[in-house]
Design brief:
CATH class of the largest domain: Alpha Beta
Largest sheet: 6 strands, parallel
Radius of gyration: 18 Å
Shape: globular
CATH superfamily of the largest domain: Response regulator
CATH topology of the largest domain: Rossmann fold
Mean pLDDT: 85
Structural class: alpha/beta
């Protein structure tokens, strides 16, 4: 009997994650060996289960999928990664591939496309959903310098984006500092920079911005 490919799922919406697991395990080629509800859990799942492939969302609590991809690829470059997301903007596709993702699939796709993407990536190729592939090609041909920023968050550093996300999720400065291994003063400085760069006057405005731009779920 041919061994099944070992799959890990990182998705914070439980119903969607359970649905994915059910669909995958109906296919004789796949076996779901681990599940995670945020980026930090995704890293732990990969370390413990060592799957052949990880399917991960970008917008998740605590640690974004983008950051989790970078960490996982650093520690386990052999693990293939497919992003499964609602984000269609060119920026997200390029950043995901730059972080180390091997495939990019939209949640609007049907399961057959996801299965195709998994097999394609496991064979050593890169897969991008057909609905956005033209956009990606045009962006590549234009070159990074010619692409206009999608939103003001492009001006934020990776650390500032992480702080923005954690603030929007309701974590206090001390909790954020503990998660990111930085001082409270550093967190406060990041918050000031975020408000200045995004022209936001209050924490409630920061939360509204993060929700509007898909950095956290409502």
């Amino acid at each position: 009997m041919t061994p099944r490919y070992r799959v890990a799922l990182a998705e914070d919406h439980i119903v969607l994650r359970q649905g994915l697991r059910s669909l995958l395990e109906k296919d004789e080629d796949f076996e779901v060996v681990a599940e995670a509800s945020d980026g930090l859990e995704a890293i732990r799942c990969v370390q413990q289960a060592l799957p052949d492939i990880l399917i991960i969302d970008l917008t998740m609590p605590r640690l974004t999928g983008m950051h989790a991809i970078k960490d996982i690829k650093t520690m386990h470059p052999e693990v293939k990664i497919i992003v499964l997301t609602v984000h269609t903007a060119e920026e997200y596709v390029f950043e995901s591939l730059k972080a180390g993702a091997d495939g990019y699939v939209l949640k609007a796709s049907d399961f057959s496309e996801l299965a195709t993407a998994i097999r394609c990536v496991l064979s050593g190729k890169t897969y991008i959903s057909p609905d956005i592939s033209d956009t990606v090609v045009m962006g590549y041909l234009k070159g990074g310098k010619d692409r206009e920023p999608v939103s003001g968050k492009d001006s934020l550093t990776p650390r500032e984006r992480e702080v923005l996300k954690l603030v929007a999720e309701g974590y206090k400065n001390r909790e954020i500092g503990d998660m990111l291994c930085v001082s409270i003063k550093t967190v406060e400085k990041h918050r000031e920079n975020i408000k200045r760069k995004l022209d936001l006057a209050s924490t409630s405005a920061v939360i509204a911005y993060a929700i509007e731009h898909g950095l956290v779920s409502r």
